[in-house]
Amino acid sequence: MIKHINVALLGNPNTGKTSVFNRLTGLNQKVGNYPGITVEKKVGSCKFGKTCKVHVLDLPGTYSLNASSLDENVVIELLLNKNDKNFPDVAVVVADVENLKRNLLLFTQIKDLGIPAILAINMADRMKSKAISLDIPSLEKKLNTKIALISSRKNIGFDYLKELIENYNRLSTKPCLNASSISPEYFDRLRNAFPNQDLYKLWLVITQDVNFGKLDRKDFQGVATFQTESVSNLKRLQQKETVARYKFINETLKETLHIDSANATDLRSRLDRVLTHKVWGYVIFFGILLLIFQAIFDWSEYPMDFIDRSFAALGEWTKTNLPAGQFTNLISEGVIPGIGGIVIFIPQIAFLFLFISILEESGYMSRVVFLMDKLMRRFGLSGKSVVPLVAGTACAIPAIMATRNIENWKERLITILVTPFTTCAARLPVYLIIIALVIPDTRVLGIFSLQGLTLMFMYALGFGAAIFSAWILDKILKIQTKSFFLVEMPNYKLPLPKNVLITMVEKTKAFVIGAGKIILAISIILWVLASYGPNNFNNAETIVTNQYASQNITDEELANHIESYKLEHSYIGRIGHAIEPAVRPLGYDWKIGIALVSSFAAREVFVGTLATIYSVGSDDEQTIKSRMKAEVNPVLGGPLFNFASGISLLLFYAFAMQCMSTLAIVKRETNSWKWPMWQLVVMTAIAYVLSLAAYQILK
Amino acid sequence: MLTIASLKKGQSGIIKDFPVDIVPLKLLEMGCLPGNVVRLVQIAPFKDPLYLDINGSHLAIRLETAEKIEIELI
Fold first, then answer.
1. Using one digit for the tens of pLDDT, what is the confidence trace for A125-147?
2. DSSP codes, A84-151
3. Binary contact (A486, B59; C-beta < 8 A)
4. Per CATH, is A3-170 categorized as 3.40.50.300?
């Protein structure tokens, strides 16, 4: 018989909980979402011997069971719901040996829920250098639990931890604290109203609702409406609970924990002095930003070229080796370029997450938040908005998800709303091709390439637009929120390569699968719309052949003419002609119009769409470029892509909200359609007006 | 009234009192409780936020919150 054990990993942020998870499960893990919300759900499994299968759930880091964010709320919701299939048989609470006092707060709360709990004291390898000594047997007795001293860095103590997990039924479920002692009178009332329920659970349900809004709970019907105390009194009781818990913890640790604090001036204070310095702090931060940009836009070029060529070759290969027909066309012209369009972003996204996870693991990110908070606040943002804005240069989706730790709702909302202005990776191919077309390839002052400078200006424009609109939003949004900001400054740590790698792989995978589905679907729809059409479409061959019968052209040219005739009369061609009046004042023709419309699914579709429209068989940039160069403006004559229309296009792509996946994420994160619709309309209107002005002035 | 905001860099104080409704529970959970020692570790370049060591917990809060927390110098 195989024994199944559900384990929940809990702990404060920065305790190395994730490394413990990685040590226990290896790569045997799955990252998903909790139903309906975008909190990451990490599940892994491992086998202890032959008879015991363990499912490990890595819960979001939390300081206590009093949730104040979506991530933390997941923890308490699970622990209150005995019927959840993930409800733990045993909780492993991971604590940092250097912060034991604070970490025990959560432990005592979990213990009071009656869930068997193991205390895993992590970073035990540091005890010697920090002169910390612990009396484990006595601490076990006082906390009524079993303790494993572990080090995920040095892989120490995991055998014992596994042994404890396997024998979880021997753990005591006695609470640490009698919660009702904080207000016997209130808890008596509670007991009388709900005689069959566990008092501490009731108390958590009530305070949870005070802090977090009412939630549906089958098991605790009527509890949410049972208050009989004012909100501020309940808050006072919660404070009393915290004080009582700390009193218990202090007494417990007084006899069991000894720290020889002689060596206090350590690496932390020395590093802090430099990294948060009023000059060096900023210099180092911008240096790191430069390095990240260098990696994303220079180093990733090589793998991207390789991917590009491979997919082009693959498409070619299927075309020649599969039996000819519409199905093969769909595969070689729709599906393969579609998948290629997603895969090509992997290097950039992976680099970005590599750096972000190193910065976060090392503890440096908190210093950036500390350094930037006051500056960002002038624009209605928070120091914590820096991470999303930087991440936005790869993709707005993970960036918007990274706003979750901003406590202040107004600051968080503004960050979510302005993040799509930053130049994401998807805009890069569009910028590159237009810049190559309309900006002369000359050098400024003999060293800087004018095209390169233009690209840099586009990035600056993106950041500028984000900051400026944040400032405007701060003035016009009337949202009353309690201003509150708290960031933990963790100790500096050398990032564990394994953790960094796993984060990088998981996040990249999530992006590729999440955004990929939409991009793939769009490319298939586009292919269908461009491959079928009414009336004339089906007679294209005869019409064009007759048209060019008198002219002496090669078969290849004739085939190209047939292709573009077909496209013009396909469904997508019709759509393009229908919207042409709207885009002509911006300097575009119907073909660009179609590329614009399809870009609303995802911007990077632009180049691919033009490739299809200009009847160039492959995605090869040079050929698209030369075709675009040869296009003639239908009204004015002269090249279609000139300086005026090129600038107009660049501006349109800089400002317009053209990404369905981002809209979907904003909807989920703000829990309403109001904000994504607002983004779509306002950003696109700004884009239209600016492009219009630019074209009309420069024309 | 002496508050955390009146500390100089490197100075320490003992937390005395603060208004329940303004100071968030999260801060209490991090160890900001009456009787505990608070040390001002570092001030950010534009004088805000403040980097504190409260009872062994290292954290940063904004000036406006720090001004609400009454202390006694030691």
1. 888 888 888 899 999 999 999 99
2. STT--SEEEEEEEGGGHHHHHHHHHHHHHTT--EEEEEE-GGGTTTTTEEE-HHHHHHHHTSEEEE-B
3. yes
4. yes
Contacts with B30 from chain A: Cβ below 8 Å: 63, 102, 486, 488
Domain-wise residue ranges, chain A = 3-170, 181-241, 499-698
> How far A71 CA sits from the closest chain B CA (Å)?
14
Instruction: Report how far residue A668's alpha carbon sits from residue A663's, in angstroms, rounded to the nearest whole number.
Output: 9
B26 CB neighbours in chain A (<8 A) are 63-64, 66, 68, 407, 486
Q: Which of A:388-407 have CB within 8 Å of B?
A: 407
What pLDDT shows up at residue A104?
A: 93
CA distance B5 to chain A (A): 15
* Local structure of residue A180 (DSSP, 8 states): G
pTM to 2 decimal places: 0.81
The ranges of chain A with pLDDT < 70 are: 27, 31-39, 209-228, 261-265, 482-483, 514-515, 518-519, 612-624, 634
**Chain A within 8 Å of B41 (Cβ-Cβ)?**
yes
Q: What single string gives the DSSP state of each residue in A508-544?
A: HHHHHHHHHHHHHHHHHHHHHHHH--SGGGGGHHHHH
For residue A384, the one-letter residue type is K
Burial class (CB in 10 A: 0-12, 13-18, 19+), A440: exposed
Domains and CATH numbers, chain B: 4-73 (2.30.30.90)
The position carrying tokens 């929940």 is: A8
Rounded percentage of chain A residues whose pLDDT exceeds 70: 91
Whether the CB-CB separation of A7 and A57 falls below 8 Å is answered with yes
- Give the ipTM of the model, two decimals please: 0.95
Distance CA A637, CA A106 (A): 72
Q: Are the beta carbons of B41 and A272 separated by less than 8 Å?
A: yes
In this structure, the number of other CB atoms found within 10 A of the CB of residue A188 comes to 12
A218: its two tokens: 């089958």
Helix, strand, coil % (nearest 5) of chain B? 15, 40, 45
Alpha carbon A218 to chain centroid distance?
32
